[in-house]
Amino acid sequence: MNPANHGQCHIRRNSRDERSEGLSREHLGHTNISQNGTEGLEQAPSPQELEDIAQSLQNQTPPEVKVVGPHGNCQRSCYGSVSSILPTDCGHLDDTSTTNTTGVHCPNMTPSKMQRRLKFFFMNPKEKWHARRRFPWKLLLQIFKIVVVTAQLCLFAQQRYSHVNYLWDTKISFSHMFLKGWDTTREVQVYPPGSGPLAVYEKQDFFQYLDYAITTYSTINEKAIGTYSYKYRDGDLVLPTLCMAQYAGGYVSPNNNTFMLNDTIAKSCIDIPVQMNVTSWSSEAFLKKKNYILNFDLLMNIEFTFHLHTIKLRVNLPFDTPECYGLTGKVIFNNHDHDGQMLVNLDVAAQVLECQGSIKLASEAYTLKVWRTFINVTSIMICIISLIMCVRALYRAQLLRKTTVLFFRQQYGKELSLEERMEFVNLWYLLICINDIFIILGSCLKIGLESKNYEGYLDTWNVCSLFLGLGNLLVWFGCLRYLGFFTTYNVLILTLKKCIPNVLRYSICLLMVFAGYCLCGWLVLGPYHFKFRSFSSTMECLYSLINGDDMFATFSSTSGKDPMVWWFSRIYLYSFISLFIYVILSLFIAIIMDAYETIKNYYENGFPLNELMKFVEECTEEPSSGVFQDEDDHTIHDVINSICCCGYEVC
Predict the structure, then answer these.
(1) Residue 270 to residues 234, 237, 282, 296, 378: CA-CA distances in angstroms?
(2) Which residue in 82, 441, 457, 608 is a FRET match for 225, CA 20 to 30 A apart?
(3) Region Disordered: what ranges (predicted)?
């Protein structure tokens, strides 16, 4: 309780006591009360005594009533504001209390009190500091969180690159060893592609490619530079397998243009009992021996699968330590199109295995490893605290919203609109809660990945990087909230907020036109242009054209074998580029510039306010005026005085 209120409480109590004592004395002077409990009966007062009592009541000082008007703190209230020191259901109404946001609403709360409460709620951290000397802990925590999670991401990015790069290098090594005819030009992704796909066109070539892969597996320890070993299960070698997928039955007869086909796909696998260091192997003879007949007319694909173990010895302490992997390689022969071209590809999947070994860490490396663990744990703790604080702030805001809705309903008989209710939903806090959840999940996965005491596929690294990446993205987006406290930077945020609804409506119309061009281009140009061979590649090509990327290559790559298609491609590309670059993009810019000019005009002439904000703006008290001091933060001395002195609780 403030000292001023404490003094007023004594004065009010003394005045009440004095009035009560005077009234009691006067009343006793006109009544006759018996001194013993059995004989004393009160006599009816005479007319003269009644006149004396009425005269004494008229001479008493009337209760003080204060009308908040133009000379009050919150001036020019269009709703009217009357406050009294008379006791009510909620106790005495004290207009200086501004912090009761617990959701308990007093029926007789004054508008000025509600205005100060709402004004404090909509203050920024700097204004709240001046109002109550409340330290902006959430702001400090968010700044510290940015530093910690960014350092965590940098360390994890280096680790992730090492794992992904290792898997890619392993695939390149296996391609050289297991694929016959592999060329180094296929290792670099260039645009447009410098060579066609690797494929076989003759049956004899197919068996040669398959035999080459089998003999390479048999002599892997002798040929490979890398450290590889075979996989054993219960002491037995896990043999490579050859799996074939083909139609369950049917025949094709081009002579008389007849066919019969059972479209059920039948898959069968057979182990390849190849021994170590076998330099010669005939797959064709082995399949005939096993009564496996390959009907290439019905064949869909063939997969040669093998299993190997390896240890990655690349050491870049403390970020990388030796790791054990189980590698599953597949040489795939794809004949789905049945066009005389069987595509050949190799795929490698890596599974992290638990390693048994040790390594001596230098003192510097050990220190960095400890720091990495400390950053992971600190990141989790900070995000948990941040999540709790933001959820608490969101919850208290909803309690205040309910109080405000009830206040307007009881005082003015009106309901808050949806826009006014949304003023109590802080989307920045929701953004912080989401990024906290992402970072907590990613950090937990990161600790597990770095512990080396797990088995799993490298996809776990992708999931972990997804959580940490999205979390950091939202964390840095959240920095815009604090830049918005400065007028210069707030223009950008308000411009985006203003133009987003119009941009979304305009994008819906734009999407219709863009989808039409994509579908048309995919259908007509797909067979003649490699950029239009799929719907996704068509969208990527057209989006690139909007940004002016590789226009001449798109024009020149169109096949001219069919004149009608060639002329159509010219009309199609010219119309698309002209429409989207010169018209649609210009309208996009116009929408954004219109929003920017509107925001600039608001800064010059004032922002439009809804009814709720107009009600709040009627309170002209400055944050540093002292009326926003937190009166709920009582000391023990104040609590005792409030109980013994006034006997009521401030609402």
Answers:
(1) 20, 15, 15, 18, 53
(2) 457
(3) 1-47
